[in-house]
Amino acid sequence: MIGCTCDVCRSSDPHDRRLRPSIYLDVDNGPAILVDTSTDLRQQALAHDLRRLDAIVMTHNHADHVMGLDEVRRFNVLMGGEIPLWASAATGRELRRIFQYVFEPPQHVGGGIPQISLREIDGEFTVGALAVRPVPLLHGRLPILGFRFGTFAYLTDASSIPAASWPLLDGVDVLIINALRHRPHPTHFSLAEAVAVAERIGARQTWFTHICHDLPHAATNRALPAGMALAHDGLTFTVEVG
After folding, report:
1. Strand residues in 27-141 grouped as ranges (E)
2. Share of the chain residues as helix, strand and coil, in percent rounded to the nearest 5
3. Is the pTM value of this prediction over 0.85?
4. To which CATH superfamily is domain 19-123 assigned?
5. Residue range 206-232, pLDDT digits in tens
6. Looking at the domain that runs over 1-17+129-231, which CATH code has it been given?
7. Closest CA to 130 of 223, 71, 78, 57
8. How far apart are CA 107 and CA 82, in angstroms?
9. Tens-digit pLDDT profile for residues 53-66
10. Which DSSP symbol is given to 225?
């Protein structure tokens, strides 16, 4: 947190140094998918040696989830062409507005711009042979999307899960869900709320993300139920998506 001297912001534990949330799926014999293009995408891609990107899926259009989109132009070079980006109709409209220079480029552009093929999410879709199931969520009053890939679900920025979305989470084995802080927040789950959601879903392993500096990594983990922990930058794990 800019200008903060709290214990977490001054912590020497690398797990307390948190960039904006995004995940990268590298599917065996399948596509490499980025969920959201966080503001820190360039730093994250360099730190974790990302060299391939077959598709992007967007949860919603807030700045911390989309402002790294310009960095996709390097992946255009690496992949040799445009990259499909899947988003809801509302998020797609906002992306066209925010990144007008990408989707309606002026003729006099001299520098490189991302080459993006914008595709609308209106139900389950596939990237290559991988099925991607959108999971409608509410971020305050804003409808957003989580995603399910096989037995893995990624739900970030939610403050509630609509009744119709709970069946879409049956059988989830590994879950990532947002848990901002202990105190209630109008647009994000608190840690206690996220734990309750995780217990209802019943995943074998739950990781909490989108964490603010109110939650020290080690101390928070010691108090969490078995099978639950705070995620951290660079966390990797294997899931079944087929």
Report:
1. 32-35, 55-57, 83-87, 116-120, 125-127, 130-139
2. 25, 25, 50
3. yes
4. Ribonuclease Z/Hydroxyacylglutathione hydrolase-like (3.60.15.10)
5. 999 999 999 999 999 999 999 999 999
6. 3.60.15.10
7. 57
8. 18
9. 999 999 999 999 99
10. P
